[in-house]
Amino acid sequence: MTELLERLRSALGPDGIRVGAVVGERHRVDRTGIDPQAPLAVALPRSTAEVAAVLRLCHAAGQAVVPQGGLTGLAGGATPTRDAIALSLERMRGIEELDPAAATVTALAGTPLQALQEAAEEAGFFLGLDLGARGSCQIGGNVSTNAGGMKVIRYGMAREQVLGLEAVLADGTVIGAMNKMLKNNAGYDVKQLFIGSEGTLGVVTRVVLKLHPRPSSLATAICALPGYAAVVTLLRRAQAVLGGVSAYEAMWHDYYDFVTSRSDRPKPFATPHPFYAIMEYAGVDPEGDAARFEALLASMLEEGVVLDAVIARSEKQARSFWQIREGLEWDAVEAPIHLDVSLPIGSLGDFAERTRAALQARWPGSINSFYGHIGDSNLHVSLDMGGGGEARRRAAEEAVYRVVRDMGGSVSAEHGIGTLKRRYLGYSRSEAEIELMRRLKQALDPKGILNPGKVL
Length: 456
Prior knowledge:
Blueprint: H1 2-12, E1 17-18, E2 41-43, H2 48-61, E3 64-68, E4 84-88, E5 95-99, E6 104-108, H3 113-122, E7 125-126, H4 139-144, H5 152-155, H6 158-161, E8 162-168, E9 174-177, E10 203-210, E11 212-213, E12 217-225, H7 228-241, E13 245-252, H8 253-261, E14 275-283, H9 286-303, E15 308-311, H10 315-326, E16 337-342, H11 348-362, E17 367-372, E18 378-384, H12 389-406, H13 431-444
Parallel strand pairs: 2-4, 3-4
Antiparallel strand pairs: 1-2, 5-6, 6-10, 7-11, 8-9, 8-10, 12-14, 12-15, 13-14, 13-17, 16-18, 17-18
């Protein structure tokens, strides 16, 4: 190890390797806070060539490497093991090119998502990827986990935003697939190997993202609804009538009540309701879009699909709606459990009922809340189990994932597998699929040094 660290210092410079106390707390765990571990060292490359040098040296030594981005993940994917070197891409940040003709932006993997959003907006474009952690998450991590977020319903997952990328394999080989074309059918689409593979097949170092025209109008409303069927009806009617629904977030009453009861912000509604939905409509005709938006809600109120609605009259008011959905009040819970699952849209209401019943039967009085993007089949489950430690956390996860398995869903919609969901991968993937994943891992990382123990 001493010899390897000296070689890494030679490759990265004296400040490119941190060991011991100078590693700090940041690199010990992702946002889950579960099972923090001090890595043997932290490598801080500034370029693709330096990433390649780190991996080439570690591959030769059989040394485990855990890639790290903004550490905002919720599945343990960037949490190191004690025998691993953390490979942080935080110094590899910056936008290399914004091409207006191609409508693309090229950036280094350590660039914060928000920086890319702001650059796109300044150039008159819009980046379709948006997450609550936009200020701290990094685009390389977004791509490596195939991040979703609030705009998926219109623009798709991170995978749909990526035209090209550069990645470094376990042995230091650089794969330059920096495509800028929408159409490129020349053989295998190798970039897909690295999107969503959580750093287990290669380390993403640069990305090319496609941009979209920037909307010139934005309308936002929060609606109260009588049941889950009405939530789906409003979404489908809005998509049919407006066509430009850019975000649609549903909240069961338990989630809405938890957040609003712990906040001093004014509540949008004076009386409680079974369901709530925040709908955003992005268009290009400010006056006409506003009229169509209001007309849709009026018709939904008349039909009884919507019980009440508040249209945001300012950006500040719209932001207050989104603050309910972001649920920062959960940060005050001592040991919250945040899960994300995916099922067919029509099954999400039944899933929430069955899951709540299972949790309450075993842990009466626990807080079980449901909310999510809905239009992309993604539901989040946030739990306060009243303590109980690791054993209760695992038991609660098992209870939720059993319902997912029985209903034919996925144990991960957008958070990834990491370590926390690894034991449940077979609930959503067949043995043949998992064996194929193992073959890919063996082919690209035969020594198993890249993010070992994650996903598989």
